[in-house]
Each structure stands twice: as C-alpha cells, then as structure tokens.
Design brief:
Largest sheet: 2 strands, antiparallel
Structural class: alpha+beta
Strand content: 5-15%
Order of helices and strands: HEEHHHHEE
Strand order of the largest sheet: 1-2
Distance between the termini: 27 Å
Number of strands: 4
Oligomer: single chain
C-alpha cells in the first residue's frame, strides 16, 4: 500500500507468492517463518515476479526452522516458543502465515492488532480468536478499508482462519474471482466487489455495468 500499488496488482502479487509456496510444498519444503518480511516482488512490463528469501528458515530434510515472526506465527505453535523444543512448522502453519499476509495486505492491519475492550495483548486475542471483525474490537476506519471492500468468499475464509482457528489453505480461485469482480469508486478511488450496491467506504452508488 505504501508503494501506491492498487488492489488488482496487489492480488496478482499475492497469487504469485502463493504459487511459490505451493511449489516449495510440492518438493516437501516447509517455509517455516512464512511472513511478509521474507519475500519480495518486481513488477515489469512482462508481469509480476515474486522471490522468497530467508531460506535458512526453511524446514527441509529434517533440519528445523530456528526463527519465527510472532505476528505470522500460528497460535497452535505459541506453546513451543520460549522453550528448548523445536517448533513443529508444517504446511498448515505456512498457510496460516500466508493467510495473515493476505489479510494484512487487504486490510492494512493484522488480524489481532486492534484494541479489544478486555484483551489487549496480541497473543491473548489470537488464542481466543478475537479478530478484527469481533464485535468488541473497535474497527479502525479510515485506517482500514471497510470489510465489504473484500469479497464474501475471502471474508468467510478469514473468519474460518482467524476466528475459528481452522487453518485451511487459501483457494487461489477466490483471489482470481475477487480481482475480476473489482470496480473502482468514482469518488474515493477505493476498489471493491461489483456486487456491492455502493462503495463501502464512501457510499457512492455502484455504477451499472
């Protein structure tokens, strides 16, 4: 977002990164520290290319991942931090980290980052599934775009992962469908799905297609 990358381009970057991760998984390589800080991308006239780095965090051939980034760490793994035990990273925990990257990219915040009326610590909220759309979390608009700027399928996926702790792979087709549905508001320039009757951010009516 800070690079003024629009939503369609952002979705293409995310899709490319997911493809990279799936390729690694097909070779029995787990990314381990799957976070937004461990990949880069370039945009050229030929398209988008993503690159994974910090490969010393990969879990391959029995060698464990020695590091993690807390914001992207699956809550199931919290109990292993601060101990001498190896953290059992897996494809499932990679998908959790990836879901967090996608969420952060679309909402401009992390799932458990915003203040709750009772629980303030990041881990407390993560362990309890108190995510951005919890009724007791103050939604930080306009810092974050309205939830309706995201497709219903992706909102459902995020709820499964961050509220219900069902750590499922993201369906790449949902990203493709979301990208193909996008319209740009003529007033505030926000992108949102064309099945919304009006712009979720400023309420200007969606133009007829």
């Amino acid at each position: 977002r800070s690079l003024n990358i629009n939503t369609p381009t952002l979705l293409a970057v995310l899709d490319s990164h997911i493809g990279d991760m799936q390729n690694l998984h097909s070779q029995n390589i787990v990314m381990g520290d799957e976070s937004g800080r461990n990949f880069a991308f370039v945009i050229t006239s030929k398209g988008i290319k993503t690159f994974c780095y910090d490969t010393d965090a990969y879990v391959v051939a029995g060698y464990p991942c020695p590091v993690w980034t807390e914001w992207f760490l699956c809550p199931d793994l919290y109990k292993y931090t601060g101990t001498n035990q190896q953290i059992p990273f897996s494809e499932t925990t990679d998908w959790y980290g990836c879901a967090t990257i996608v969420f952060w990219s679309l909402f401009n915040t992390l799932p458990y980052q915003q203040p709750h009326v009772k629980y303030q610590e990041f881990r407390e909220k993560a362990e309890r599934g108190i995510w951005l759309l919890d009724s007791q979390v103050k939604y930080p608009f306009p810092l974050c775009p309205r939830p309706e700027t995201v497709s219903d399928n992706l909102l459902h996926y995020f709820e499964q992962v961050f509220k219900k702790h069902k750590f499922l792979p993201i369906n790449r087709q949902d990203l493709v469908d979301y990208a193909s549905s996008l319209v740009q508001c003529i007033s505030c320039d926000q992108y949102y799905p064309n099945n919304r009757p009006s712009c979720p951010n400023c309420s200007v009516k969606t133009p007829a297609i």
